[in-house]
Design a protein that fits this description.
The complex is a heterodimer. In chain A, a hairpin with a 2-residue loop joins strand 3 and strand 4. By secondary structure, chain A is α+β, with helices and mostly antiparallel strands. In chain A, the strands form two sheets. In chain A, strands 2-5-1-6 form a four-stranded antiparallel β-sheet, with helices on one face. In chain A, strands 3-4 form a two-stranded antiparallel ribbon. Chain A has helices spanning 13-22, 70-81, and strands at residues 2-8, 29-35, 42-46, 49-53, 56-65, 89-95. Helices cover 20% and strands 37% of the residues of chain A. Chain B has helices at residues 3-31, 37-64, 95-112, 114-117, 123-145, 150-154, 162-180, 195-214, 222-250, 255-269, 278-302, 311-329, 343-375, 382-387, 389-394. The chains are: A alpha+beta, B mainly alpha. The A-B interface holds A 44-49, 51-53 and B 187-192, 195, 246, 249-250, 252, 254, 256-257, 260, 293, 296-297, 300, 310.
Chain lengths: 112, 403
């Protein structure tokens, strides 16, 4: 199993969700996060004074999938989240050791 | 007593109190960081209540009773000579209504100074400073101009408080900001936490300002109507002009900028509002936005003083500008009043009055700040400032979002 963490632009969430639904990924967790990468924050101007916002708002998506489905899931996220500008985000993939459905106690592949 | 006049001043009183509670509170609270939002609001509430009691005890009497050149008398201490049938001299209003109307001006003036010291001042210092400032600066200056004192006798024209309210608060804001020192990391500060709240506050200030300016007619008649018209035209023009400046300078017109323009236009038209027509209002609004826009920059960059929410740059400069421009604008277009002396003579009177009010405000505030620093201390600790005044001074948190 793989655990996929994607940091994306907030306004691409609907796109990503639809793309994942289309390939049959039927569960994800979203968190509002803030951070910076190459985008290096953003500038805002109030009453003529420039303020640097060091941490830009992003969304973090977390998905657990069977190993053989990881590749298409990653591709779906990338194509749905991409705008082509700096700040589109990143995708990280980890090995997932264990999964358990709280209601039934099913584990691993059955729990996803 | 005239019931029509009385009705309008009762309404105006309500409008002007709303300018402090909650309009100015929203305007300022939206501009600070999220960790200080409640501290600004509680400062507004406390100042409103403290001033009310002081006004009743002695403030009203020292400002509006007696005919001394420098200060009123003690005849109306505790409002002991104000009955149900007492009429305020020179008006058709019950004195109780006049006391209340003027009280709301006394409330908002020290509250304006909050904008200078937010995010770092000790709460006990706010209370002590505001009480002393009301009695030592606001009360005498009000008496000089509106209570029959020496500036009024000299012929100073200040319809609704360009000098009494905005210049006095603006200069005093600069002095206390200077003595207090800047916030941590100034000028690299976090941006306003809730620009939408700034707009709500500014919009309510705009509406309240009709009571402030048109109420200052003390009549429900054509003077009040023309005052409201000039006031509104200034606010609308100033908003457009500030927006245009930002659009040209930065490529984007911002909400905070637009409503800052609104307030600059309203402050600028205040002293002139009852003397000019709508053309004068438009000119004052445009001039107010242009001049205040650059004044904000000069205070922040040039003087390097952390007048955090631009009390001097917006209120002080706007109020003074309107005071100085008004002699030239009264005869422009329809609707203006007339001057009792040549234009340039009146200008000199205006200039001298602004100088007198400015110097008194600066010197007296310096002394009050010194006394306050000795008795309560001015600043919270560095740790408390970083944590935010909401929790460190008041034990509360503005936003419980995640839990």
């Amino acid at each position: 199993m793989k655990f996929i963490i994607a940091i994306i632009q907030p306004h691409r969430l609907d796109n990503v969700r639809e793309a994942l639904l289309a390939i049959g990924v039927n569960g994800l967790t979203v968190t509002e996060v803030r951070g910076y990468g190459r985008q290096k924050g953003q500038k805002e101007i109030y009453r003529g004074a420039e303020y640097t916002i060091a941490f830009v708002p992003k969304l973090k998506i977390e998905i657990a999938v069977a190993s053989e489905r990881a590749e298409e899931t990653i591709n779906a996220i990338q194509s749905a989240a991409r705008t082509g500008k700096v700040g589109d985000g990143k995708i990280f993939v980890l090995d997932l050791l264990q999964a358990l459905r709280v209601r039934t106690g099913e584990t691993d592949g059955d729990a996803l | 007593m005239a019931s029509g006049d009385t009705a309008w001043i009762l309404v105006s009183t309500v409008l002007v109190l709303m300018m402090t509670l909650p309009a100015l509170g929203f305007f300022y609270a939206g501009l600070v960081q999220a960790k200080n939002v409640l501290s600004v609001l509680v400062q507004c509430v406390a100042i409103a209540c403290l001033v009310s009691v002081l006004w009743f005890v002695c403030g009203y009497s020292l400002a509006f009773s007696g005919s001394g050149a420098w200060i009123g008398d003690a005849a109306a201490f505790f409002l002991k000579n104000v009955g149900r049938e007492t009429v305020r001299a020179g008006t058709h209003l019950p004195e109780s209504v006049f006391v209340m109307f003027q009280m709301t001006f006394a409330i908002i003036t020290p509250a304006l100074i909050i904008g200078a010291y937010v995010e770092r001042i000790r709460y006990s210092a706010v209370l002590l400073f505001s009480g002393l400032w009301l009695l030592v600066v606001y009360v005498p200056v009000t008496h000089w101009i509106w209570g029959g004192g020496w500036l009024g006798q000299m012929g100073t024209m200040d319809y609704a408080g360009g000098l009494v309210v905005h210049l006095s608060a603006g200069i005093s804001a600069l002095i206390i900001a200077w003595r207090l020192g800047p916030r941590q990391h100034f000028p690299r500060i976090n941006p306003p936490h809730a620009p939408w709240m700034v707009m709500v506050g500014a919009a309510m200030l705009w509406v309240g300002w009709f009571g402030f300016n048109a109420g200052s007619a003390l009549n429900a008649n054509g003077d009040a109507g023309m005052t409201m018209l000039a006031t509104h035209m200034s606010a609308a023009t100033a908003t457009l002009v500030w927006m245009a400046i930002e659009w040209i300078t930065f490529g984007k017109p911002s909400l905070v900028g637009a409503v800052t323009g609104t307030v600059a236009g309203l402050a600028t038209v205040t002293p002139a509002s009852g003397y000019v027509g709508p053309v004068g209002g438009v000119i004052l609004g445009a001039a107010g936005s242009v001049v205040c826009y650059y004044a904000v920059h000069i205070v922040k960059r040039g003087l390097k003083t952390d007048d955090a929410l631009d009390v001097l740059g917006v209120h002080g400069v706007g109020g003074t500008l309107g005071t100085l421009l008004l002699p030239f604008l009264v005869s422009l277009g329809a609707g203006g009043a007339s001057l009792s002396r040549p234009v340039w003579d009146q200008f000199i009177v205006q200039l001298e009055s602004a100088g007198a009010v400015g110097i008194w405000s600066a010197v007296a505030t310096l002394v009050i700040v010194f006394v306050t620093a000795r008795l309560t201390g001015l600043r919270v600790s560095k740790e408390d400032e970083i944590q935010g005044l909401d929790f460190s001074s008041h034990g509360e948190t503005g936003y419980h979002i995640n839990v």
